[in-house]
Design brief:
The chain is an alpha+beta fold. The protein has a single domain, classed as 2-Layer Sandwich (Gyrase A, domain 2). It is about 30% helix and about 25% strand. The strands form two sheets. The protein has a five-stranded mixed sheet with strand order 4-1-2-9-8. It has a four-stranded mixed sheet with strand order 3-5-7-6. The model has no long low-confidence stretch (mean pLDDT about 95).
Length: about 160
């Protein structure tokens, strides 16, 4: 079975995600809109489900780095933070990182200059998967966070 691990990880690394993934964090009114926000187009939703299923079947910790698309007014207006006029920032890349050597409910977000890394255990992977399924259905305005309600990632539908 150990010989399959590099193959599983290699498939995850080679998986192409061509849909649009949008992330942003408000720099205004953070008290009411804490943490990071995420939405995806329909194609990215389908592709991320494949990715998350592959990660869930892999017994090893895995990472997948994706380029993000800068949000437009269409994405920013949905949360209605100050009628869509609140200041915000984004990152050019997002890394989804499954950690198999932690507790299943592990969740953390870390930032570098141009990347947002979302690290999670298997249980939180299922919550992330469910949220991605909900976006094309017009559902959102809920978050995943760690047990202390930090490292918040809020999901939004697209109009």
């Amino acid at each position: 079975m150990a010989s399959e691990a590099p193959l599983e990880k290699e498939k995850i690394e080679k998986l192409k995600i061509s849909g649009r993934v949008y992330i942003w964090k408000y720099t205004d009114n953070e008290r009411n809109y804490p943490g990071w926000n995420l939405t995806v187009d329909n194609l990215a939703s389908e592709e991320l489900l494949v990715l998350f299923d592959m990660m869930g079947q892999c017994e090893w910790s895995t990472n997948k780095k994706l380029l993000t698309t800068r949000p437009t007014d269409k994405e920013i207006i949905t949360p209605n933070n100050r009628n869509g006029n609140a200041k915000w920032t984004t990152k050019s890349k997002i890394i989804f990182s499954l950690k198999t050597n932690t507790t299943p409910d592990y969740w953390a977000t870390t930032e570098t200059a141009d990347e947002l890394k979302i690290s999670f255990g298997k249980e939180k992977l299922m919550g992330l998967r469910d949220a991605i399924i909900d976006i094309p259905k017009g559902k959102g305005d809920y978050s995943i966070a760690d047990k202390d309600d930090n490292n918040i990632l809020t999901f939004w539908w697209r109009v």
